[in-house]
Amino acid sequence: MRTFILAAIALTTLWVSEPLAAQPAKKKTAKARKPAATSPAAAKTPSAVAPADVKPDLNVKPAPLAATDFQFPKYEEFTLDNGLHVFVIENHEQPLVTLSLTMRGGEAYDPKGKEGTAAIAGDMLGKGTKTRNALQIAQALDGVGASIGVSTTGESMTMSASFIKKHGGIVLDIFAEQLKDPLFDQSELDKLKQQYIASIAARRSRPVEIAQALSRKVIYGMDNPLARRTLESTIKAVTREDVAAFHASYMRPNSASLAIVGDITADEARTMLGKYLGGWKKGVRPEVEIPDMKTEAPGVYFVARKGSVQSTVIVCAAGPPVRASDFDATSIMASYVGSGFGSLLFNTLRETYSYTYSPFSLLSRGRRYNRFACGAEVRTSVTDSALKVILSELRKLADEGPDEEALKRRIALEVGQYRIAFERPSTVAAVLQNSWLNEVPVDDVINYTRRIESLSSAEIQRSAQQYLSMFNLRIVVVGSPDVRTKLEPFGKIIEYTLDLEPAKEAPYETVAMSLDELVQKHKQALGSVDAVQ
To answer: How far apart are the C-alpha atoms of 248 and 163, rounded to whole Å?
Structure first.
């Protein structure tokens, strides 16, 4: 019996160790036996060698496949009578539909001193209408597996819905009612404000968020609407009347666009939207102009956070508006600096010095102006060393330009990521709506990859020279109070609190002491008169 078991194991081992390509599939073998008796086997040629028998040279990098032409996905657009601009992107693979309604009106339009109004107004849409309370809305959506949500950013607010096509009538009825007839119940508002206040308190534990918020203030201006921050005091100041006024001013169809994606045709979309949103009335949108940015003076903007074992370091600068001729070059430059594997900061801060795990870089995409930022979270002991590396790499990029091969790889990565993202119809919707929001022609979006593929290293260097000069850079650090002295060589230290208010110097203590008492204290500090004679 033992001999039989050993023999079986040996046969099994022999079968498994055979290359997979050489193992016969049972079904294919069975079919192949039938014609073998009636027709001669095909003569074997050298080209018929099984791929598993070919040993590739592991020292040679495989050549990339031939590039394919990129075709921007098809879409249709139209405008309802009330001014709502609509994009339709069909995708019939699944019976799902997604709506994305973007309105011109976000955090930048909050009344001064009442920051948080826009976000609260958006969240209150789901807290009850004139015919349904918050619980009824939640139950109705849950019953059909649908969802409706609102998000708010600097200059826009987006209301989204996702549902199975056959339940579109139920969901759109609720969606439209939230837009047109929100209740703004006072008790729901009070509960929501308490949630906001709790989240503001928790914000102190997130140093990256603190640093990014301070960098926006430094670049755009401390009082710029795009840099203002919600505080407990501003949330408490928001009233029901403020929320209702914001809704009436900014949530209007003639200052909004809607992208509808999924198992729906343009004709079906037109009919459905006309039925449920056709009665959404136009409004006069307030003319609120975002002021020009006013970048703060050069220096190191520091937030002392007791107990921190690492520092969040950000080097930032003003960037061009999204419609500027050099925006594409500046965007690629930002990616080249610190976005993922192969970037400058990845190769230095992480690979060479082991200061951090994930350095970063970014360029915002605003209509009026933007912010470049790069940096990392590093150990407290290497805060100054990491800053030196970042500044050195930025200076080198401006002086010498990018490495040609590295730039080619970076552009190829950007092109590949951009194109593959369009496999998701939601990407098409987002790109089209961003073009509408930023007033960028759709043709510019369609031709984006062609433009960046034609960028030269000289154009990238010019962007670095223009935006990353030492005169334009600002430094933001959030970390232990112990790192303050290490930051002094980089410029004047300007301190802020965790709530991003200017830190006040410790007040002088009033001392009531006579001259004789002062002399006696001085002697004691010296160790008595005899000690110094």
So the answer is: 27
Cβ-based burial of 9 (10 A; exposed 0-12, middle 13-18, buried ≥19): exposed
Q: What is the pLDDT of residue 510?
A: 47
Among 510, 518, 191, 212, which Cα is nearest to 362's?
212
- Name the domain count of the chain: 2
Parent domain of 237: 77-277
Q: Is residue 530 part of a domain?
A: no
Average pLDDT over residues 265-269: 97
| Separation between Cα atoms, residue 271 and residue 255, nearest integer Å | 21
Token output for 178: 């939230």
Say what the pTM is.
0.81
Same domain, 364 and 266: no
Q: How far apart are CA 514 and CA 361, in angstroms?
A: 59
225 and 374 share one domain: no
Residues 410 and 350 in one domain: yes
Q: Which of 227, 130, 226, 236 is nearest to 178 (CA)?
A: 130
Give a yes or no: residue 156 inside a domain. Answer: yes
Domain CATH for 345:
3.30.830.10
Q: What percent of the chain has pLDDT over 70?
A: 85
515 — pLDDT class (breaks 50, 70, 90) = low
What is the SS3 assignment for 161-210? EEEEHHHHHHHHHHHHHHHHCECCCHHHHHHHHHHHHHHHHHHHHCHHHH
Cα gap 230→110, rounded to integer Å: 10
